[in-house]
Design brief:
It contains 7 helices and 10 strands. The chain is α+β, with helices and mostly antiparallel strands. Helix 5 packs across helix 6.
């Protein structure tokens, strides 16, 4: 459903799905936002801006910001446009202007809802690659009903139970683990806290945790797929 602002300005909303890998996985979220802002500008996309007189911003919304070092394969990004565009040609042009390791892999219509893209996100699939990570995961989660880890934020320390945030897990090899985890505003799993628990309770070495390859393969949510 369109908002009054969208009707008045005849705005259109599209949903892009992008991947990042290699060195691009180490770009921080704010820098990723700026990267896309510049690429849209250079590709001459008619991106709409907010009507904030003091701090107007391009109308871009990422479904789930990716932490530094996390690769992605199909992360959603909502873009609001002043006028419709030929998406096939526009995406092709955009991809030519994005840096190596970043690519739009699919696109579609944005969900017909007033809810923000981030509020629709419910879960995500992750692939972890690290020596003996499956053994560490089994040792951590099979022997106790809850796995509690401390989380420090803004000078306060909270206790987070990781167990209900892991929806499914399966072993690929001894060194490759697939996890479906809660994501978004409810039951969100921070992968850094998971690795801390695997070191503390599962015997994963600090070196393996620090060098783990993490790939977010897909994001799930209401009306997204």
């Amino acid at each position: 459903m369109s908002t009054p602002l969208e009707i008045q300005r005849q705005l259109s909303r599209v949903l892009l799905f992008f991947a990042r890998q290699g060195a691009a996985a180490w770009i921080a979220h704010l820098d990723t936002m700026r990267l896309f802002e510049r690429a849209f500008n250079r590709a001459q996309w008619p991106v709409a801006w907010t009507e904030d007189a003091f701090n107007p911003r391009p109308m871009l919304v990422f479904g789930l910001p990716a932490g530094v070092g996390i690769e992605t394969r199909r992360d959603p990004l909502e873009v609001t446009l002043e006028t419709p565009v030929d998406m096939n040609c526009s995406v092709e042009k955009l991809n030519r202007l994005l840096p190596p390791g970043v690519e739009v892999v699919a696109w579609g219509e944005a969900p017909a809802t007033k809810k923000s893209l981030m509020s629709l996100v419910k879960a995500a699939d992750y692939l972890f690659e690290a020596p003996k990570i499956c053994r560490a995961f089994e040792k951590t989660f099979s022997s106790r009903p809850s796995v509690i880890v401390p989380w420090a934020r803004k000078g306060q320390v909270k206790e987070i139970n990781l167990t209900p945030r892991i929806l499914d897990a399966r072993k690929i090899t001894d060194d490759t683990l697939c996890i479906k985890a809660g994501a978004g505003s409810e039951n969100h799993l921070r992968v850094d806290l998971l690795l801390e628990a695997l070191v503390r309770d599962g015997g994963l070495s600090d070196e393996s945790a620090a060098g783990a390859r993490i790939i977010r393969e897909r994001i799930y949510g209401d009306l997204l797929f």
